[in-house]
């Protein structure tokens, strides 16, 4: 959605492609942790996993505030970020910044207009609704926004030169409507082995909030990775209402596969979604499921109500009153994972889903609720072990808007979530009312670290001092096994450093699978388990 205040940004079953896009290259710019014991003189266990499945915990690593209202100048920020081998990138409304991953040091910063301007692109009006992804398969970053100034509305797209985002980017503009009668809003960004994809909802220039349809852009990845990146073989689909017209969301494929690319849009009814796909080949793509055949029943839920906050300030709007999936889907181990805010017992809560992308069958789903907090603007990430981290906002009548995360562990195909983890506590109420809505959001981002599947990062928003100020929080999250306590009953024997009396019970903790070095082991002298 368009930001406000200081930034004024604000038929048939198959879809035919509206030709190939005539666009110009505008130039380049610029663990599971293992605890090891000290060597034991006489006795120690050598083995792994003997106590059964280990529980997991989420620990906070790096945790720093990045952008603020004063550095960005936009409302809301639309919190978006990505993580590469050595860098953390945040692209929000009004600001682009690069941090060193190892310690959070800020390496590069500019406003969003300057980000695009360095590539030779002058946005029509202000750019808004950012998306950014680091693609491990290609070692590149991809970024997208849209702009709008009647009668012009464009997708803005960029690809980095390398895995180092400070090396520079190549940018492109793509007209989102060949007739110039509508503007693109809430763009989304998807990536797989074949291509990079964008989608957006369209509104009429003649009636700002009159939805007219949607658009989808397909770009072959090979064209983007050459010495001179190109979108010469890109395809634009222009779809009339109601095809994919409410928040079409794309996926990031972590399995390394190619087309089809799933598209999930809402219908305005919380219990229904439209599932569609981009089908190959990527150089001559087609769309399926856009004629109503892809309507899927979701587990029953209501639209999320406005979120409570302390004091007299108006409750917070949860975009966009249609139960859409505000953040990207993730394809991991052959399953599609997504999360959204819904209403449960009159309170904003989170609904997560795991979906079979081939059949659109819901494999499992659930709600994350709290007795006191409204939970909203979630984003999801899943690693190769089907460990799930969801980052989100939480607030209540006694809790200012704060940043949270929660960890899910999947065992035998069943995912269970633990307790909410507070990442950054809000310090003030927030009110920025526009069109009768107290604008917050419009989304957040959570990703797996490409260098370590047991490390996640989430990019969230919290309420800062001042009554109308937000700040973004970048948090590194470590998945670690819970300590499992063992007691070793040492049978009578010679005294040693750790058992000076030659008998008794020694309590130890095993974190995961480990091997312990020993001088001598006499298995006849060891009993594992609770001491008698």
Structure in a nutshell:
With 532 residues, this protein is mostly beta strands.
Structure description:
With 532 residues, the chain is an all-beta fold. It has three helices and 36 strands. The chain has helices spanning 69-72, 112-117, 221-224, and strands spanning 17-20, 56-68, 81-83, 87-92, 95-100, 106-110, 128-135, 140-149, 152-160, 169-175, 182-191, 195-204, 211-220, 235-240, 251-253, 261-266, 272-279, 286-288, 295-297, 329-332, 335-344, 347-356, 361-368, 374-382, 388-396, 399-411, 414-417, 421-424, 433-434, 437-438, 445-448, 455-464, 469-481, 484-490, 504-510, 526-528. The strands form nine sheets. It has a five-stranded antiparallel beta sheet with strand order 1-14-13-12-11. Strands 15-20-21-22-23 form a five-stranded mixed beta sheet, with no helix packed on it.
Secondary-structure blueprint of this entry?
Layout: E1 17-20, E2 56-68, H1 69-72, E3 81-83, E4 87-92, E5 95-100, E6 106-110, H2 112-117, E7 128-135, E8 140-149, E9 152-160, E10 169-175, E11 182-191, E12 195-204, E13 211-220, H3 221-224, E14 235-240, E15 251-253, E16 261-266, E17 272-279, E18 286-288, E19 295-297, E20 329-332, E21 335-344, E22 347-356, E23 361-368, E24 374-382, E25 388-396, E26 399-411, E27 414-417, E28 421-424, E29 433-434, E30 437-438, E31 445-448, E32 455-464, E33 469-481, E34 484-490, E35 504-510, E36 526-528
